[in-house]
């Protein structure tokens, strides 16, 4: 039996590493019920497991080389300046576009990287990377006013930042934003016709970033006093969302006025998992140390570099504010004094890099290196072909030399364990129209316990240091749970990848899978014995216009910094 209606609940950053222990404690009855009644698997994320690329792969069924989004930030054309990505930067139709093209009505709420809102056959409310003060966050535009009238404030993501002394405020803010989102969903589900409904909760990601050190007694930032209050803070948010899920599911039939209730499939998924972060690796500092990245010789750049080497860095300032419980003050100062422009004026930044002598640089959140390639970068110096391959091999071999002392995980040492666990050339894991623009080297630090920052502001003067400010980071293993119409009572299975969900959803709803999708239909989870039908295309080209104004960019970057994605 195929689904007449399908619901996808996204839980950003959710992981079975938390869910299964919580269920074993007798918690999360809704999660347990859905898992017991259907099929579930860990869900392999994109490389790197970053929100912007992973959610884009979910919605398009394509690898990042095909849809073109590799991280939160992208390099502007003909420039080394960076900007946050938006929906306009993505190639490929989202699955709800394909459903809409087939006449199915969709309601899409809070999915990351959907701003600015695009037209759909139904309703859309944008998600993460929506500017904080954006007024145009819905399609149609007047839907924003309707939601405000129906429920009050709609919150794309909570603005609260975790810091010492603000734990209760932090948790209450996350609960409130989740509550308001469900109230908005209930309003729309009751009022408007729909065949496909999707809602994403970012709170599961935000709470892990903030409170993992309270949950995990082995974490180097574990504070017994804070743990006594907030050890169960992550569980509290998962339980709250479990209750909201139960409410949504129980209300679905009552919202439907049809005499014969249509069969409904329910899918839970996350874009990536979560686990403790213990170190920060500043990739551009490492590249500078090894001679791949050079700085300008002018007086201003050299003075900033001297101050940088003595420890006057954005991270030092932010850590000081965080220790005082003033994490939000950094955002206020940014806004009042010109934000990133202020940082570039007083701190070392990409504006101080001598690109005419630089062979490699890094941008991104997990581990990405770009070669300064002639003909691609505006001041590229590395020739395509043999020189490019030689430089790339040299950088890979140099990265392999990074090591950690077992007894001091924040210190580099030649006799410790290798820091880099996996390393690839881009063509080994990506393919598609955007391969040329992809990071030339991608790597994952050991156990993903190290965040490999490639900052455009040089956040710290260290190469490796113990992490602070955020206590968990992303993992490759997200979640997938399927239950309801068309789903086999299969229990746990293995091998699901995030690119598989768009084809699986289309098949469940009786539609052909476009031949240009990279994912497959997860037939091992389906009771349906229909052969998979292939046909058509999901091709769509990214827009050529910018997604954000200067002020909107600033708001998005501030939020990424709050979550620890930008140093």
Task: Describe the overall structure.
The chain has 567 residues and is an alpha/beta fold. The protein has two domains: 5-275 and 474-553, Alkaline Phosphatase, subunit A; 279-313 and 348-466, no CATH class. Strands 1, 2, 5, 6, 7, 8, 9, 22, 23 and 24 form a ten-stranded mixed beta sheet that branches. The chain is globular.
Give the helices and strands, then pairings.
Layout: E1 5-11, H1 16-24, H2 29-37, E2 39-44, H3 51-60, H4 64-67, E3 73-75, E4 82-84, H5 95-101, E5 106-111, E6 122-126, E7 138-139, H6 143-151, H7 167-191, E8 196-201, H8 203-215, H9 224-230, H10 233-255, E9 264-269, E10 273-276, E11 279-282, H11 283-289, H12 299-309, H13 314-323, H14 327-336, H15 340-346, E12 360-361, E13 368-371, H16 386-400, E14 403-405, E15 408-412, E16 417-418, E17 420-425, E18 441-445, E19 450-453, E20 464-466, E21 472-475, E22 477-484, E23 491-492, E24 496-497, H17 501-508, H18 550-562
Parallel strand pairs: 1-8, 1-9, 2-23, 2-24, 5-6, 5-8, 11-19
Antiparallel strand pairs: 2-22, 3-4, 6-7, 9-22, 10-21, 11-20, 12-13, 13-18, 14-15, 14-16, 17-18
Describe, in short, the structure shown.
This protein is of the alpha/beta class and 567 residues long. The protein contains 18 helices and 24 strands.
